């Protein structure tokens, strides 16, 4: 057997994922070398505090605080520090030096993808970030390579394990949001400050990345309409369940042709994150706990789903190392790195131009003719009703009757729906609008 | 924009998939050119009869019976003829000419993979066959590239839509095999001669390919133990359903360490196709109709599942075109094609060394002490029982009682199980062994 060349690997950051990447690089060195066609030598791990406690026992001499020097001497750089700076500067410096870069930094890729890609293309090296979206699930490479000869029309992703765990708990146990969040925190699925997860920011960064790859056009974080799950109530979940739906936080990217709207529409891609009702028989409805899944609709391939663990040190390390071995192979074989194509010409649509179905819950007066008046109002706003169901409640003591009205619409624009809801609120027979939620998969 | 170079694409075969590939190459020429970085010009379609009726209206001048000449002049060759010859000779000739080859020919790849790969490596060109396994589902590329830094331990695949449709029908409607097969034939999911599907031969070729990629070792068709679904009865399905299981035809490849068996074991990979009981809550149990799915367990990534359409002209064409665009990009960028690694050293295990759980249905005499005697016999053969359930039936007219015994074992070797079943048959209290089925996912 010929002697394999050695490639130096610099690791930036040694948290949950980084520590597992370092462990596997050391423990599985022989296997990785055989797969890559080169020895992958971990040359150092840049951290803020070289004496910090780690999850994994690693050789102390690998640690350094001097990330700059480490990067300058590396063939392959793995960035797992997170945040924008100094990650951005270090990655750009690595690319300029001709090193391939593997990162799991979704915020940075969503914000600065074009700059990073431009630098990688200029240097002819690979920039890859499979770990940035849906952890262990191979999703970016299949979209980029396997579906390169197809046209993706829609992507629906459960890409945040924390919120899926919380919504799944609420669905299973009937818990309120606050209690389900507390349980997620107790089990380590949610952080002490859960804002980035529960407000949808994490999912929004992943939505921007998925949309960019799926539609061959760079979408930035500001193109993503984002709503979190903090306002989803146990009553919403119960009503959805009763109607045969489950509520999931979805990252959605879909091509729409809404040229006839007056809301800045036209052909384009709607990229958004929001709580969404899905029929219980939809493949994504069966994704429980902290698992992730991405459902793709393509013109030729039809429906595809990719399912697996979306977070966790070891699963995410698998995605990082897959990218690393691919990048190493490209260095060994020679030739420029495989890059994404950005040949698309589609624009990001504002949320008002999004077209979807809606679930609307109303607390209404129990009077004759109420349904007719509401139906009339929907018709006037061009929103077609698919299902309308009224449930009468009678308070046993007071003998007062109240009525609950649940409406599922056909596909309509956000703008038309918003106008309809405004008008409905003005009706004297409406006590309150209890929920307005979007529906997919019907 | 700089002028793109033109790559000549030769298509061999124009059946269900080939006709769609031709259509998309013509209709989506601009999109494909942008993705590939080169114009993909369909230079000709080799068929046996140039005047045959096609599913798609294609320019008559593209058709030729002279495949040899077409291949000699091509940069990219798509082989969708099926069968071993002349496909094999044409592919080898294309590779020797420096053309990249895309094929959907599972039988050929399973039988002659090593020869084809050797030729592709020698020429430094890509040989890819995503369409050969699970149709539209991107599965080979994720295994090869995305999981390159991980160690796959087990693959369970529903890779034959015909048999999944038949078993799903039997499960849903209670139909017998023959009726479900007739229904599948009526709907076009099964061929007039369904042998290759229902006897598991199609799944076996795919199992060999999945095992080869997953364990970085070439496994041939003769390494695959294959049992079809023709002997699965409505009673088997009903009993499985009653016990919380569903029966699926699975292609299985798993690493086992059975060094302690006397059956030719040792560390190795068991590759097999057989009807298998899966718990109803297993992700694969929810794969209905003619859909396919591949479930992967890897050391670091954990559990992954890939789901989608496993057959059909247009979905399979998506996989072919994904490979084609990737191959074209490699020609445009230069550098050798990406190849598989065959660094594994694992051997194929004989079926006797396979280790799994079993479901055994027995028709037994309703006498005291029968359960104890059977349990004793299992213990003597080293097969541990997980669940044992006896149901007594009393014939209302004759007043004769019969007892049905259902046993689910813990994991045991095929050899131990076979010996146990033989011994059980010899007991005087046993009327018959009604079914022996393997169980996964417990």
From TrEMBL, chains A, B:
Keyword Amino-acid biosynthesis annotated: yes
Pathway involvement of the protein, from the record: Amino-acid biosynthesis; L-threonine biosynthesis; L-threonine from L-aspartate: step 3/5; Amino-acid biosynthesis; L-methionine biosynthesis via de novo pathway; L-homoserine from L-aspartate: step 3/3
The protein's role, per its UniProt record: Catalyzes the conversion of L-aspartate-beta-semialdehyde (L-Asa) to L-homoserine (L-Hse), the third step in the biosynthesis of threonine and methionine from aspartate.
SUPFAM superfamilies: ACT-like (SSF55021), Glyceraldehyde-3-phosphate dehydrogenase-like, C-terminal domain (SSF55347), NAD(P)-binding Rossmann-fold domains (SSF51735)
Cofactors named for this entry: a metal cation
EC number: 1.1.1.3
Cited InterPro entries: ACT-like_dom_sf (IPR045865), ACT_dom (IPR002912), Asp/hSer_DH_NAD-bd (IPR005106), HDH (IPR016204), HDH_cat (IPR001342), HDH_CS (IPR019811), NAD(P)-bd_dom_sf (IPR036291)
UniProt entry keywords in alphabetical sequence: Amino-acid biosynthesis, Methionine biosynthesis, NADP, Oxidoreductase, Sodium, Threonine biosynthesis
Catalytic activity from the UniProt record: L-homoserine + NADP(+) = L-aspartate 4-semialdehyde + NADPH + H(+); L-homoserine + NAD(+) = L-aspartate 4-semialdehyde + NADH + H(+)
Protein name per its UniProtKB record: Homoserine dehydrogenase
Domain of life (superkingdom): Bacteria
Organism encoding this protein: Pseudarthrobacter polychromogenes
Domain ACT, first and last residues per copy: 359-442
Record-linked Pfam families: ACT, Homoserine_dh, NAD_binding_3
Family: Belongs to the homoserine dehydrogenase family.
